[in-house]
User: What shape does this take?
Amino acid sequence: MALRLYNTLSGKVEDFHPLDGNRVRMYACGPTVYDYGHIGNFRTFVAIDLLYRFLRQNGYDVRYVMNITDVDDKIIRNSKHDGATVQQYTAKFIQAFLEDSATLSIEPPVLVRATEHINAMADFIGELAKKGFAYRTDDGSYYFRIAKFPEYGKLSKKDFAGMTDGARVDVDEYDKDNARDFALWKAPKPGEASWDTAIGPGRPGWHIECSVMSMEQLGPSFDLHAGGEDLIFPHHENEIAQSESLSGKQFVRYWFHARFLLVEGQKMSKSLGNFFTIRDLVLRGHKPSSIRWLLTQVPYRNQLNFTFDGLKSAASSVEKLRNFRFRLTSAQFPTGANSHMTQLADETLVQMKSALDDDLNTAEAQAAIFDMLRKANTALDSGEVRQDDVKPLLAALEKFDEIFGVLKDDDQPKMKAILDWARTEGREKEISPELTEIAGSAHLADEDVNQHVALMQAARNARKFSESDAIRAALTAAGIIVENTKDGVRWRRK
Ligand code: AMP
Ligand code: ZN
Assistant: This one.
């Protein structure tokens, strides 16, 4: 089966076929860098990361571009408030976005920045004006003339037929009741950043940047455009209007939108006190791998309800996967093969692929791998796993992890980096004892534990019991429980 994706434009799940053979060109609306990214933003970015990883796993050659909105109404307002330039203000949050993405093991896209494309935006607007799709107002601003683009509303499925021609809206974000001719270019205001360009001084509206940067990077027509569901209107509707008016071609073939995340059943908001950045969660002692896992658990079009209980159970799921791999790689097995195990691994691969092919059904892919874990663990307990079974079982696990990205135990250094950041930012009070414990030297990564366990075994075999006891005691102190089983020595975390 081939990949099938829900396309917001058609309102249907469709077979995915890129325009140009094996090449996929994909664009995602990235962060507006006026603050630290929150878990809602990262729900969307992780969903797009899974799509990117799965396309590549299927052999596509993917060019994945993401923009950074480093100028918009909020940034202008905040930088003005801080007496900083737009560049000074956003630098810190761009850096934070890169760090947080790496913390969540997001594969890096090609990143492009709005402020590096201002002249290209002005030229694009100039062309739209020449074709009659844009007009200039007395103050030197430019607006898109919606009446010239009858297909306006085709993405959001809204009917704008009765709208007054020439009524305008200035703010970057608005709802459908405000749908009017939208600002492409805003004339300079005192104390606000502005640029001198071919269409005069000013600054771009928010929507024009994505049309300009996506088309520059990927051409006038490309395969996939992604973002959170809030962007369908007005942002993506406006992108389509701008781009198709200029090129006369279909802008994007598949529109991919992730559903908004809730926190403990409610919309996330600062006033409700349920607003969390990635850093907030790590400061409370939660591991990046647990956060990533939680964000992948619910298929991207379903409502994901973020809860702290869910985060705990995510941590235990990740631990089970890591322990299973350790078990397979550390125990001794009798020679030969158990055909049930090879068959189990093969079936799991098929189930995972068909789950993800089905509009990225992550929940089903995870169910398939845990089914394999359950059956293989039972076989391991009863000594039914043979040497030749290890490779196919591990291969299925690795294939799963190419998409989900949680097996590598690098939580500790990532958490340590956030602890150090909190100290330099004067946020010591928010550092939990749990974070201090994990980020501190007492916490050992899987590889370190494996090394210690091997040393402990070697000491025991050499009958140096006090040495092996000392290593065991050190491991216990670091929260590692070592058990002797008939498969050999095994360990788990407390
Ligand atoms: P912003 O930084 O506000 O421009 O948003 C960056 C991305 O995060 C966009 O694709 C938004 O649609 C998405 N986003 C914002 N809030 C949420 C949320 N609560 N759940 C899911 N995605 C979100
Ligand atoms: Zn955008």
